[in-house]
């Protein structure tokens, strides 16, 4: 992974602002955890945001796996997904992560992040994710208004409306990648770090450079590593400019 991380660093270039690394849906895949570590050692990553599904079942074996592989050399904000159990959340807290185990706004490494856990609790290969639970949660849990911040949730369905002034939302759940504009915000879904299928397929991530304190993206890169192939795509997203003071 060290060589791939250097290729990613070359593809992203020097940071244009506060650089964050977004990974989601790792699903216990060791290669995904190692990629995060390698990228943090190679690039100037100020913050890691993971939008859930670190685990598959959230059992004791995964506690051991997370304890061994999630000693990442950068601060972590963790928004739990539908495959992340209470045990997974306790393990991440023990490792020093800020866990969004309830709707709350945290500040880590100078970056303000708001989110909450996926209302679904589904085991790997078990019941499907219930879209209605996510929609019901979105109707009840509203992102706060006020100073800018980044939204981090497992599924974008968990947010019914992005407040004005919020310029970036990070999400996962769907294993495909997508970047698009919604109002003032850019929604970034990098695709599953754990692969398209369980434990197979490319390892994916996103690198985002933030302008602080506006929390607006200055650069977005989608990363895909498949065996010896490394792909880094810079995404050009045109946002509306802030009104003149």
How far is the N terminus from the C terminus?
Answer: 46 Å
Structural class: alpha/beta
> Average pLDDT value?
91
Assign the CATH architecture: 4-Layer Sandwich
Q: What is the assembly state of the chains in this entry?
A: single chain
Low-confidence stretches: 240-245
Strand order across the largest sheet: 4-3-2-1-11-12-13
Specify the CATH homologous superfamily.
Metallo-dependent phosphatases
Shape: globular
Query: What's the CATH class, please?
Result: Alpha Beta
> What's the number of helices?
5
Strand-residue proportion: 25-35%
Number of strands: 13
Radius of gyration: 17 Å
Can you walk through the features of this model?
It is a single chain. The strands form two sheets. The protein has a seven-stranded mixed β-sheet with strand order 4-3-2-1-11-12-13, covered by helices on one side. It has a six-stranded mixed β-sheet with strand order 5-6-7-8-10-9, with no helix packed on it. The protein has helices spanning 2-12, 30-42, 60-69, 86-94, 131-140, and strands at 18-23, 47-50, 76-78, 98-99, 104-108, 111-115, 150-152, 168-170, 178-182, 185-189, 203-211, 216-226, 229-234. α3 (60-69) links the parallel β2 and β3 (76-78). It is 22% helix and 27% strand. The chain has 245 residues and is an alpha/beta fold. It has one domain: Purple Acid Phosphatase, chain A, domain 2, CATH 3.60.21. α3 runs parallel beside α4 (86-94). Residues 240-245 have low confidence and may be disordered. The termini are far apart.
